[in-house]
TrEMBL record:
This is UPF0303 protein PYS65_22890. Gene3D superfamilies: Haem-degrading domain (3.30.450.150). InterPro entries: PduO/GlcC-like, PduO/GlcC-like_sf, YBR137W-like. Belongs to the UPF0303 family. NCBIfam families: PRK02487.1-5. Pfam families: HbpS-like (PF03928).
């Protein structure tokens, strides 16, 4: 089992994984790269990229279900509301000895602070969207997105 990253590590990921710009073409390339990563691993995931309320990319790989799309929407709403990765939002609550569901008072059918949705942040602009994966355990969903972002932004 992979050890849960610290809050400092999760926050550092957000500071590091920032775009200079984010276009429709970037969404296609990032989403396609995530699909390739997931296929190599036989990961039964759905992948979604939203920017400014518009879905720019979506893919559902074999083994994913409509439930994954519902999880994507719930995790993405956490990013949109808090401006942070869904996993980090949940980890902040766990670090305080509570849960997101207990302390946020938000409808759990609408919001899920589970790993897999990461903010698309543009330097000098802020959070403009989210890239989200659903279908694996939450830490693995988060790690898959982070790995793809690290690769994409290194090019």
């Amino acid at each position: 089992m992979t050890e849960e990253p610290s809050l400092e590590e999760l926050e550092a990921q957000e500071r590091r994984l920032v775009f200079q710009r984010f276009s429709h073409e970037d969404a296609w390339e990032l989403g396609s790269f995530l699909v390739d990563l997931a296929r190599v691993r036989d990961a039964p995931v759905a992948i979604d990229i939203h920017r400014a309320g518009q879905q720019l990319f979506h893919a559902a790989l074999p083994g994913s279900t409509p439930d994954n799309d519902a999880w994507i929407a719930r995790k993405r709403r956490v990013v949109e509301r808090y401006g942070s990765a869904s996993y980090l939002v949940g980890a902040r609550h766990r670090a305080k000895g509570t849960t997101f569901e207990e302390s946020s008072r938000l409808d759990p059918d609408t919001y899920a602070a589970h790993g897999g949705s990461f903010p698309i942040t543009v330097e000098g602009v802020g959070v403009i969207g989210a890239v989200t994966v659903s279908g694996l355990p939450q830490l693995q969903d988060h790690q898959l997105v982070v790995e793809a972002l690290e690769h994409f932004l290194a090019d």
